[in-house]
Write a structure and sequence with these properties.
By secondary structure, this protein is mainly alpha-helical. Helices cover 54% and strands 4% of the residues. The chain has a two-stranded antiparallel ribbon with strand order 1-2.
Length: 157
């Protein structure tokens, strides 16, 4: 009797671009479903559920970079921007002196801080934005998966 070897799912492999990760990215962006808008939200719900079963209620690198890649905003000078403002290394520096729940990933922080920047950079200073991001997304008033619950698998604008 021949046995099949289990194939591991690697988030960082190129296969992911055309496999489950690529499909989920298309679902998240809505581009796979253009013309079928009535089903878009339902499929996003299923994609989010799939991610939660595979990885839990927190961002990993693949989904964080995909999610932040959807950001579109104007910087303080009014110039159109897309994607990240802060790299993951900069997020580590910005958050190293703060306290987070043990399950919060660097990728949760990456999404939360970049999302907050994109929405507040025209009106608040960088220092204010980092304080707002911390209090809004990682304050003790809400469960530790708040970033995923509100931003996971939703196109960001």
């Amino acid at each position: 009797m021949e046995t099949k070897e289990a194939t591991s799912f690697s988030q960082s492999s190129n296969e992911n671009l055309f496999g489950i990760g690529g499909l989920l990215t298309l679902l998240m962006s809505g581009s796979l479903l253009s013309g079928f808008s009535s089903n878009t939200e339902q499929l996003r719900v299923h994609a989010k559920s799939f991610h939660e079963k595979q990885y839990g209620t927190h961002f990993n690198e693949f989904f964080a970079k995909t999610q932040v890649g959807f950001l579109r905003y104007k910087d303080p000078s009014g110039e159109e921007r897309k994607g990240e403002h802060w790299s993951v290394d900069r997020i580590r520096e910005l958050t190293c002196d703060k306290s987070f729940h043990d399950s919060v990933t660097i990728w949760d922080k990456y999404v939360a801080y970049n999302y907050t920047y994109a929405h507040l950079c025209e009106t608040l200073s960088l220092e204010q934005i980092t304080e707002v991001a911390y209090k809004l997304w990682f304050g003790n008033e809400y469960e530790y998966s708040k970033v995923w619950d509100f931003l996971g698998m939703t196109p960001l604008t």
